[in-house]
């Protein structure tokens, strides 16, 4: 009787712990919505996860027995913590998208491995009662399929972002991917409708399904390139969350279920917002034709006009309104701190300075927000592109720093462009434009940017960090 009481008490404590952890996840996610509270929100959610892990180790029981292999579990946690800590401390801001893809892929792989390990051990009693067609088996199969796609796709995204995997554009890819997706769904139906005595009889099909899901994960990300990669990262993140939620259903674990649902729903909402910002279809992302299309046509080129540092300093210092458009080049040059120093100098001279933040600037959602927050740029200065666009005709100088595709007029002018229809920062509406770039190289979408040849545009060539530092010195000397 005492043992039963202790067992019930342990279960109650565990369930309460999971509820507390879930609340911490929700609060943490809410706090992530603002840069001033984001760090605390991240710590709060991490504490909730640690709380749930510790409680599971201490209080979880299966058939009245505590968890075994504790040394192995603790060893894995320690090793994973050390590796994650070292990677996170050493990663540069320019490599943050790759890190996000890598970590996201590891989450998908974990969900897939859980499914592969659990399927052969589906209870014979459950099979005898309802066959393979039950929620437990469905959660395993969906976790396997979605988790594997997330892992394989994230690894390809990592390689593409890091530059050692190129695009693979095949016109028939849409139909190939739809066929593979149909085959995966067919495997799920096939497995769940089999009349077997034990799940181990169908285990070989699980490995075949895993291999097909890997192929789909690779093929649906391979064609995607250009400025579309932030949407893919967001979508893969939502896949990982859904796969984790399947694990929550599988183990009746409220903390895992809540965490997975939060990641999955947040990732899905963000993906839809990214698609809206890129004027793309979510279906095209799933079947792997997102961002396809040929090169933008360039009619006649144009003349590039340069500006000197002293002229740029004078133009900025005697303006009333200045808008800065940051891009991936700013991150590469690690120039965010110097950029903030420039905007503070201009504000001391009475210039109103704002940052135009395009939703997909950089190579992951929120890349520019994170970059500028690191330099302590006030959140109030960061204005979404669709909000600031109407005010650009009243802007004296618009400064483009390392951005390309998000200010490319081809999105509005050239139907043959792969970014046609994408909402952009309407840079050419400003009275004067200064573009800071290393050279005339194309952006991530690999198309020409006619803004660089516009009558209002002046190019300031050079490394962004060095150019900004020289510009700061010129402004100080005025």
Strand content: 5-15%
Count of discrete alpha- or pi-helical segments spanning 4 or more residues: 18
The largest sheet, given as strand count, sense and whether it forms a barrel, is: 6 strands, parallel
- Overall outline: elongated
Q: What's the domain count?
A: 3
The largest beta-sheet arranges its strands as 5-4-3-6-7-8
Structure report:
The protein has 478 residues and is an alpha/beta fold. The protein folds into three domains: 1-90; 95-292, no CATH class; 309-477, Rossmann fold (3-Layer(aba) Sandwich), CATH 3.40.50. It has helices spanning 2-31, 35-59, 70-90, 96-118, 124-130, 135-162, 173-192, 203-221, 229-251, 254-278, 282-287, 309-317, 328-332, 336-348, 367-374, 385-388, 410-413, 464-477; strands at 61-62, 65-66, 321-326, 352-357, 382-384, 397-401, 433-437, 457-461. The protein has a six-stranded parallel β-sheet with strand order 5-4-3-6-7-8. Strands 1-2 form a two-stranded antiparallel sheet. Helix 14 packs parallel to helix 18 (464-477). The radius of gyration is 26 Å and the shape is elongated. The termini are far apart.
What features would you highlight for this structure?
alpha/beta, 7% strand, elongated, 478 residues, 18 helices, six-stranded parallel β-sheet, Rossmann fold
Summarize the helices and strands and which ones pair or pack.
Layout: H1 2-31, H2 35-59, E1 61-62, E2 65-66, H3 70-90, H4 96-118, H5 124-130, H6 135-162, H7 173-192, H8 203-221, H9 229-251, H10 254-278, H11 282-287, H12 309-317, E3 321-326, H13 328-332, H14 336-348, E4 352-357, H15 367-374, E5 382-384, H16 385-388, E6 397-401, H17 410-413, E7 433-437, E8 457-461, H18 464-477
Parallel strand pairs: 3-4, 3-6, 4-5, 6-7, 7-8
Antiparallel strand pairs: 1-2
Helix pairs in contact: 1-2, 1-10, 4-6, 4-9, 6-8, 6-9, 7-8, 9-10, 12-18, 14-18
